[in-house]
Amino acid sequence: MTEKYRVTVAGCGGMANSWIQYALQREDTEIVALVDIKIEFAQAMAEKYGLSCKVFTDLSEAIRETGTNLVFDITIPASHYGISTTAMRLGCDVFTEKPLAESMAECRDIIRISDETGRTHAVMQNRRFDPRIRALRQLIDSGTIGRPGYAGADFFLGPHFGGFRDVMDSPLLLDMAIHTFDQARLILGADPISVYCHEFNPPGSWYAGNAAAICIFEMSDGSVFCYRGSWCAEGAPTSWEASWRITGERGTAVWDGVGAPYAESVAPGDQTGKFMFDYVKEEAEVAVQDHTFHYGCLDEMFASLEEGRRAETDCRDNIQSMAMVFGAVESAKTGKKVMLEDLWR
Ligand SMILES: NC(=O)c1ccc[n+]([C@@H]2O[C@H](COP(=O)([O-])OP(=O)(O)OC[C@H]3O[C@@H](n4cnc5c(N)ncnc54)[C@H](O)[C@@H]3O)[C@@H](O)[C@H]2O)c1
């Protein structure tokens, strides 16, 4: 029997494992080809998962020979644009790893080609599919702290990757901050309007490029989002989900990225005359979900195809998070505030 989704996996490196494992547990999905510019990586992946599909070094050939209708792009960022546009032009829908592409011009072009071909293009933003961030969003949405005016995210970790991140420019902003910026958009439910960014390489950094940044974003709801991050911070690491504080009209929501979020807001009743008001604490309700992170995002991407709608992380949405990244890099270079709407609208 031919399965509904005939998938070519492009890029057979580390991250491909999660995607392949996910595809294997779907009854309506078959991996029909593995592609890697290093054919031995594709062969090794086929062997690892006992796949009898063909292996290729060229995506177009793989799509044409196997009747592929869906491409998983898990190649390196520099290849995302080429893989995505080739796949859509050959009639395939595309689910890609972050980042959408390597420049704003490429991001816009991907949207244009998705419009022209009518093919879906959605991006992996796994950190959105964390039940705790959904609970935080719900806490804010339900009015617990009133209208938010400020959101702050602290991200301080010291991973010793070795490899390309150690030598690239702006490793934190270009390789990691997309996650936290995208999380901020979800938490606030707002679009990015402008950014001012100061990027630097702190003493003790083992990166050639700037591994730390402070960014101030103005958001469409009038709130300010402040990102403080470092990838060369030894000791007392924050969570990879970042540590969050959101202040609103009547209270504050806190999520340390480890436990469950909670809010403290002004207690009901008359507080007249008090120097500091009394507060009530409310724990967020974290739902139990079978599929979270990569699996949760892939569930949503497949559901969007099933239901004929755009995925939550459709390229047209994701370009806003990309604008936050590229805008921050530009601001750091020029020392000026950068308006973001022109980049993504
Ligand atoms: N969402 C997350 O949390 C997360 C975490 C890690 C990596 N990623 C992303 O996943 C992607 C892959 O990362 P990785 O760690 O697996 O990298 P990797 O280097 O281990 O694997 C990438 C593979 O793609 C292959 N490749 C490169 N260009 C190609 C092309 N044009 N056609 C076919 N194959 C090509 C390479 O040979 C390599 O085998 C990156 O975009 C990265 O940013 C996301």
Automatic annotation (TrEMBL):
One GO MF term attached to the UniProt entry: nucleotide binding
Source species, domain of life: Bacteria
Domain Gfo/Idh/MocA-like oxidoreductase N-terminal: 6-123
InterPro entries: Gfo/Idh/MocA-like_OxRdtase_N, Gfo/Idh/MocA_oxidoreduct, GFO_IDH_MocA-like_dom, NAD(P)-bd_dom_sf
Keywords: Oxidoreductase
SUPFAM superfamilies, per database record: Glyceraldehyde-3-phosphate dehydrogenase-like, C-terminal domain, NAD(P)-binding Rossmann-fold domains
Domain GFO/IDH/MocA-like oxidoreductase residues, every copy: 133-253
PANTHER family referenced in this protein's UniProt entry, alphabetically: CONSERVED EXPRESSED OXIDOREDUCTASE (EUROFUNG), CONSERVED EXPRESSED OXIDOREDUCTASE (EUROFUNG)-RELATED
Family, per entry: Belongs to the Gfo/Idh/MocA family.
Protein's name according to its UniProt entry: Oxidoreductase
Organism: Paenibacillus abyssi
Lineage: Bacteria, Bacillati, Bacillota, Bacilli, Bacillales
